[in-house]
Amino acid sequence: MNIEVLKNQRIKNNWTQQHLAKICGLSLRTIQRVEKTGITSAETVGALCAVFKINQKEIVVQATNTSMCSKVYHEYKAALYILLISQFVGIFGVFYSINSLSEIQFQIAIASVCIFCFLSFFTLAVSAHKKGMLKEL
């Protein structure tokens, strides 16, 4: 989203962020985040365009090579690497202590690591999807 167009439209109408949020049916935090990062959902873009009575083409920026898109991509990539490393450490820890665990303790430990891994990946994927990082998949 073009942050400058959004801010200019809001200022042109003499609206505060709080007022814009109220008339759009969005939270103040959403308006603040959009004005800061330019990252938002299609629903938010639609609400803003309806309130400002502008076409989406006027406010939407193609984010294929922008620095913000690149920054978010690298943040998620780093989070994914950290997640993978922590999972390997967890699995290694379980297998390293195999001699001191009973069979049931071993199975519970492995299941716990697997469940944590799944939930972590799921949370990361949902977060990336909300930021528009998974649209091409």
UniProtKB/TrEMBL annotation:
The chain crosses the membrane at residues 78-98, 104-126. Pfam families: HTH_3 (PF01381). SMART domains: HTH_XRE. SUPFAM superfamilies: lambda repressor-like DNA-binding domains. Keywords: Membrane, Transmembrane, Transmembrane helix. It comes from the Bacteria. Residues 6-59 form the HTH cro/C1-type domain. This is Helix-turn-helix transcriptional regulator. It comes from Alteromonas gilva.
